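Morning F.,

Quick status update on the modeling queue. The single chain you submitted on Monday has been processed. Sequence for confirmation:
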Amino acid sequence: MPSHIAFLGASTGVGLSALKHSLEAGRQCVALCREPKKLDSLEAHNLKIVKGNAHDLDVVSQLIVAPDGTFVDEIITTIGGKFSTSKMGIDQPKVCEIGMDTLITAIASLRKKGVSGAPHIIACSSTGVSKFGRDLPLLMVPLYLALKGPHADKVKMEEKLVASGEKFTVIRASLLTDGESEKAIRVGIEDPKTGFESKAIGYTISREDAGKWVARNLVQDMDAAYLNKMVVITY
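Structure tokens below.
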């Protein structure tokens, strides 16, 4: 059972929810945050907050090593860009790709220095990026076509993670909304080499419920069916 978890991008949204529920489950968590004050409300004894950027190799390298000198058990990355009206797009077009490059480089470098372990990397992506077919409602296709730039970044992130050879789970959440609930969440699984194993096509899922699902199914009680797979979660 994982005991040490590193979070990248947990100051808001899915990442914040996953962090909150992981802390409640008693896991030892360390979170990288550009503005640590955003996590002040958590005030958990099992949380360490590190100020920094997910593109900073030195900071990420420190983040993913547990107190005993081995790799943390899990790394959850939910980093992403913000919409810029001046650019009419994401402020950092390659934020996810660069973030994954940094993480994989950090792991490889630390291994050469003798750090042991095999962290399970959980990366938050999006529906609408599968190369095996449609995984979202037909009515939502036009909207997702307008998100071509951010989705291209997610694809690059996924490709780099799969190619790394590290243990992984990619979470492809449907359109994100707000509000925690106990709604039933449907799950679809895709193998990166062979395609769909099961489908779950839906319109939305809230950030809070998506993060709670990650904490419950990939942290508290890891299901082997999700290992090295792309996992769609939706209502």
